[in-house]
Specification:
Radius of gyration: 28 Å
Helix content: 40-55%
Oligomer: single chain
Order of helices and strands: HHHHHHHHHHHHH
Number of strands: 0
Structural class: mainly alpha
Bound molecules: calcium ion
Shape: elongated
Distance between the termini: 95 Å
Number of domains: 4
Largest sheet: none
């Protein structure tokens, strides 16, 4: 009897495994609609702003995706943000919004005066509503809030080393980014003398060379300068620059690579 029963089990086992390709759960179908969305919860950006699927607060994310699985499968869009505002307690609601201070520029108090913008920024970065409205908060407002002037992407127009109040940003990418990280006004308002001074103090090479590529200060870039550029060339991932090579670094990231060479014109 026992032998007959065993034979029956062996006979039917291949059929039990055959319908499922997953070796971890033989015979047990995987419910993908439940299994996959959870993988996107607990990482990535805040649940309170729009971005790709899933969000950083695991509990909030699973609550929202239980209601609308597309928030974990496709994109975390405005519907998901709205669900998070309704179903995630205080996560996306800051009690101090609105508070005093312009949302688009930094100030020494928490929060800012436009409620929606204040809530969006604090949803993405708590400290904007618990500590001070820092440059990082103002920069976030530039991305998230309609009323803030857009932040000019680097490089912009005009020399990094001198003021040009009519334009924002400056022409050397790495230097432009470095200065705007220190002072978002330089990429939102105007490139004033404060920005130019910050460039002089903080950007390697850019303000040490009067004319890019003119190593011998003849006010012209020629084949003699090209020979100097070759000696200074640090290659991809190279740097820091050797002494006397400031004129070989166009973008101010302390190397002389192909990006710099592309701007070199003897
Ligand atoms: Ca020259
Ligand atoms: Ca460079
Ligand atoms: Ca470089």
């Amino acid at each position: 009897m026992y032998a007959a029963r065993l034979a029956l089990v062996v006979l039917f086992m291949p059929c039990a495994f055959a319908d499922d390709g997953d070796p971890r759960s033989p015979g047990k179908p995987v419910d993908r609609s439940q299994a996959e969305p959870r993988g996107t919860c607990g990482g990535g950006d805040s649940c309170c702003i729009e971005h790709g699927p899933g969000c950083s607060d695991f509990t909030c994310c699973t609550a929202v995706c239980d209601i609308d699985p597309s928030c974990c499968q496709d994109v975390w869009d405005e519907v998901c943000v709205s669900l998070a505002q309704d179903h995630c307690g205080d996560l996306c609601v800051s009690g101090i919004c609105p508070a005093s201070g312009d949302c688009c520029s930094n100030h020494s108090s928490p929060g800012c005066e436009e409620a929606t913008c204040c809530g969006l920024v604090c949803g993405a970065m708590d400290s904007c509503c618990t500590a001070v409205w820092s440059l990082a908060c103002a920069a976030l407002a530039g991305k998230l809030c309609d009323q803030c002037d857009p932040v000019v992407k680097c490089p912009g127009d005009g020399s990094c080393c001198s003021a040009h109040p009519a334009t924002t940003g400056c022409d050397r990418a790495a230097c432009c980014e470095l200065v705007c990280d220190l002072d978002i006004f330089c990429c939102r308002g105007e490139w004033d003398t404060v920005c130019a001074n910050k460039a002089r103090l903080n950007c390697p090479n850019v303000c040490e060379c009067v004319l890019f590529g003119d190593f011998d200060a003849t006010a012209a870039v020629d084949l003699l300068d090209f020979a100097s550029f070759q000696l200074c060339f640090s290659g991809a991932g190279g740097g820091p620059l050797a002494a006397g090579c400031a004129c070989a670094d166009y973008d101010g990231d302390d190397d002389a690579d192909l990006a710099d060479f592309a701007r070199f014109g003897p």
